[in-house]
Write a structure and sequence with these properties.
Strand order of the largest sheet: 2-1-6-5-8
Number of helices: 7
Shape: elongated
Order of helices and strands: EHEEEHEHEEEHHEEHH
Distance between the termini: 39 Å
Number of domains: 2
CATH topology of the largest domain: Alpha/beta knot
CATH superfamily of the largest domain: SPOUT methyltransferase, trefoil knot domain
């Protein structure tokens, strides 16, 4: 997969190239990362990329011309999806990462900065994405989050693909508890069922733990998961 980032601080993305399995995925050619600075496409002598907002108000607004020029210079790899990082966007979820990793050969991530961006820049995006109901100084951290989340789902990035199927949010539930040696630590013992060798019992215990954790920690996900189960049961012949 090709990942293109339009950002005023492209150097912020360099650490991703050395980040564990994500960095190894870039080194192995599973994914490639390209950064494009709108400032390189500014046409005035000061390479100006922002200006005062029409109608007045605090802060500066990212100009459309350099962003459109940077976007237009990106080679097209089809199918492509363009994502705009903005607190007004849809909250990011695991299903989005899975959809982008499975259905697209290229993602273009547009990072805002300053007080905001010219409204016409929204027209470049297929989707608007947010990390949550808060505001950051720019779109770089959300973009890095998406890159991390998508690349780890690409075939060959993670050693065991099965591990991706059991983690939190992949099936609508939170992940079950994990234990390793020693069997007892500071008075806390590993549940006996995990040491029993009974794979059927272990699977049932893990499923029960997933449901219990989701119900207690994320009641919103629990309600959604229950509704999905009821819907699926209604579809069974």
């Amino acid at each position: 997969m090709r990942l293109d980032v339009v950002s005023l601080v492209p150097e912020a993305f360099e650490p991703l190239r050395q980040l564990g399995v994500i960095g190894r995925a870039f080194s192995a050619g599973i994914a490639e990362l390209h950064c494009h600075n709108p400032r390189d496409y500014a046409t005035d002598r000061y390479r100006k990329v922002d200006d005062e907002p029409y109608g007045g108000g605090a802060g500066m607004v990212l100009k459309p011309e350099p962003v459109f020029a940077a976007f237009g210079a990106i080679p097209l790899h089809s199918p492509r999806r363009s994502l705009l990082m903005t607190p007004q966007g849809k909250p990011l979820c695991q299903a989005d990462l899975q959809r982008w990793a499975s259905n697209y050969q290229q993602l273009v991530l547009l990072c805002g900065h300053y007080e905001g961006f010219d409204e016409r820049i929204r027209g470049l995006a297929d989707e608007e994405v947010s990390l949550g109901d808060f505001v950051l100084t720019g779109g770089e951290l959300p973009a890095m989050t998406i890159i991390n989340g998508v690349v780890r789902l690409l075939p060959g990035t993670v050693g065991s693909a099965d591990s991706l199927l059991e983690e939190s949010h992949s099936a609508g539930l939170l992940e079950h508890p994990h234990y390793t040696r020693p069997a007892e630590f500071q008075g806390q013992a590993v549940p006996e069922v995990l040491r029993s060798g009974d794979h059927g019992a272990i699977a049932r215990w893990r499923s029960d733990q997933q449901q219990q954790r989701t119900r207690e920690r994320r009641p919103d996900l629990w309600v959604r998961w229950q509704a999905l189960q009821e819907q699926n049961q209604g579809l069974d012949p």
